[in-house]
Amino acid sequence: MKYEIIQAPSPNFNERMQQLDMLVLHYTGMEDGPTALARMQDDQEPRVSAHYMVEEDGRIFQLVAEDKRAWQAGRSWWQGDEDLNSRSIGIEIVNGGHDFGLPPYPDVQIAAVIGLCQDILTRWPIAPHRIVAHSDIAPDRKEDPGERFPWKQLAEAGIGLWPQPVRPEPWMMHGAAAGDAGMTVEGLQNDLKDIGYKLNVTGVFNDDTAAVIRAFQRRWRPERVNGEGDTDTITLAHAVADLVRAAKS
């Protein structure tokens, strides 16, 4: 799609210290777009920004040049990498978020996000498994862009990963819940870690495991986000992990 970039410079950026190879999608989590834009242009502490903000009506604002380091990822981790601000382009999508009832994303807004992402991918070497939600890279503290964000639609447009339906293997059938320990938990943790999540493989279903599962579910099983290792979640995690492993091999 054709669109116009509205320049709205933010002073909140610095130089990158790593190769750019990631794309991070957020929701603004504020009352409206103008409030979020003003916040990202404010030079008072704590200073934040993103490279782009996409309004509900599809307008796209650019705050920081793509080759500069915007301040949007915060404390985060993915596939062994830290300082994700240096590695990523950040897109803030105007949506009130969970504090405002997580309203649906308008079609015109999603079309603009897709068009912008597709253009970014022509300019930078960003692999599908390096396109992430803010909640993926900071599952202990972030929920955005939330379970109403249409990740499958983006994947169909060539942005990110989406697994094909698969049948569960025998080891997945019993599921796993808080406090469980054993091979099923270990297998799930290994798959989540291989996808990219920061998670120690202990074989014990602990609070960190539940937090990562919730982030995974928001991305790939949005109809039910419960932090539980049910058979559906384990099967999906294994399918996504296989896609990532194949892409990296």
Structure description:
With 249 residues, the protein is an alpha/beta fold. The chain has two domains: 5-156, 3-Layer(aba) Sandwich (Lysozyme-like), CATH 3.40.80.10; 170-248, Muramoyl-pentapeptide Carboxypeptidase, domain 1 (Orthogonal Bundle). Helices cover 34% and strands 12% of the residues. It has eight helices and eight strands. Helix 6 (183-195) crosses helix 8 (231-248). The longest helix is centred in the last third of the chain and has 18 residues, at 231-248. The model has no long low-confidence stretch (mean pLDDT 97).
Question: What topology does this entry show?
Answer:
Layout: E1 5-7, E2 13-15, E3 22-27, H1 33-41, E4 52-54, E5 60-62, E6 68-70, H2 84-87, E7 88-93, H3 107-123, E8 131-133, H4 134-137, H5 151-156, H6 183-195, H7 207-220, H8 231-248
Parallel strand pairs: 1-5, 3-7, 3-8, 4-7
Antiparallel strand pairs: 2-6, 4-5
Helix pairs in contact: 6-8
What is the CATH architecture assignment of the largest domain?
A: 3-Layer(aba) Sandwich
Instruction: Give the helix level as a range of percent.
Output: 25-40%
Number of beta-strand segments: 8
Count of structural domains = 2
> How many helical elements?
8
CATH domain class of the largest domain: Alpha Beta
Tell me the CATH superfamily of the largest domain.
Peptidoglycan recognition protein-like
Q: What spatial form do the alpha-carbon principal axes imply?
A: globular
What CATH calls the topology of the largest domain is Lysozyme-like
**Which consecutive residue ranges, at least 5 long each, have pLDDT under 50?**
none
Q: What strand line-up does the widest sheet have?
A: 1-5-4-7-3-8
Sketch the topology as an H/E string, one letter per element.
EEEHEEEHEHEHHHHH
Q: Tell me about the biggest sheet?
A: 6 strands, mixed
Please give the alpha-carbon distance between the first and last residues: 33 Å
Mean pLDDT: 97
Radius of gyration: 18 Å
User: What percentage of the residues does DSSP assign to strands (E)?
Assistant: 5-15%
Structural class computed from helices and strand pairing:
alpha/beta
